[in-house]
Design a protein that fits this description.
Helix 1 (18-29) links the parallel strand 1 and strand 2. The chain has helices at 18-29, 42-54, 69-83, 106-134, 156-176, 203-210, 221-231; strands spanning 9-12, 33-38, 58-63, 88-91, 139-143, 182-188, 243-246. 42% of the residues lie in helices and 14% in strands. The chain has a 7-stranded parallel beta sheet, sandwiched between helices. It is built from 7 helices and 7 strands; from the N terminus they run βαβαβαβαβαβααβ. The longest helix is centred in the middle third of the chain and has 29 residues, at 106-134. The chain has one domain: NAD(P)-binding Rossmann-like Domain (Rossmann fold).
């Protein structure tokens, strides 16, 4: 646990399920105030808020599409109206739908870019404005993926957004380091989430996945959340512009050992 996080305010996008839910709930255990963003899964957002408050934190949920400025502003306003400041922003919202590149429509390409990358930029821009205006340096955490370094077949749009998010992380970190605003990324490997139910996959498919992971096990949202809590805490106050891979060694390319 990180006592310096108590009472601080975080916005977590895409927090109704999966990794975002795990991070938001961990922030509740840290006794933080959490703005829980969701777009379609209201029930999931309600469950996240209930878990946060049960663990001693405070939370509200807000329906917002982070792919546009209006949606992001709803989240910013909720944090300021409810809690008076923004100390932590977690850009977690993201999605992909596997599709071969020759069949990938411009509409689907653009939607993935809008949610995964443009939304993270808009939210970061607005959070930084508030941090600078209040003279209250904070942290931004971008959830990228091992696919910021490993190509992902049939997911060109997704992989491109994760590479872009890596460079956005590094550029903003360099730009605002002197003002005390830290910007980092966490790159998860294969994590068991509703969007990627790896543990419940067909045994043959699961085995193929495990062969790519040196630790031979699938990660859980709580493991990403533990890394998130550390990296936004004062324990990591000399860390900025870096990507922390939480992937069971996936980016060590175990296939090369065969």
């Amino acid at each position: 646990m990180y006592p310096d996080l108590t009472g601080k305010t975080a916005i977590v996008t895409g927090a109704s399920k999966g990794i975002g839910k795990g991070i938001a709930e961990r922030f509740g255990k840290e006794k933080m105030n959490v703005v829980v963003d969701y777009h379609t899964d209201k029930r999931g957002a309600e469950e996240t808020v209930a878990a946060i408050t049960a663990n001693g934190g405070n939370a509200v949920f807000v329906e917002a599409d982070v792919a546009n400025e209006e949606g992001v502003q709803k989240l910013i306003n909720a944090a300021l109206d409810q809690y008076g400041s923004i100390d932590v922003l977690v850009n977690n919202a993201g999605f992909s739908k596997s599709e071969s590149s020759e069949e990938l429509s411009l509409e689907n390409w653009q939607r993935v870019l809008d949610v995964n990358l443009t939304g993270a930029f808009i939210a970061s821009r607005e959070a930084i404005k508030q941090m600078l205006a209040k003279g209250r340096p904070g942290c931004i955490l971008n959830i990228t993926s091992v696919h910021q370094v490993i190509p992902k077949v049939d997911n060109a749009h997704y992989a491109v957004t994760k590479v872009g998010l890596k460079m956005l992380t590094e550029t903003l970190a360099l730009e605002y380091a002197e003002q005390g605003i830290r910007i980092n990324a966490i790159a998860p490997g294969t994590i068991n989430t509703p969007a990627n139910p790896a543990e419940d996959a067909d045994p043959e498919e699961k085995q193929k996945t495990l062969e790519k992971i040196p630790m031979k096990k699938i990660g859980q949202p709580e493991q990403i959340a533990a890394a998130a809590a550390w990296i936004v805490s004062s324990e990591a106050d000399y860390v900025t512009g870096t990507t922390l891979f939480v992937d069971g060694g996936m980016t060590l390319y175990p296939s090369q050992l065969k």
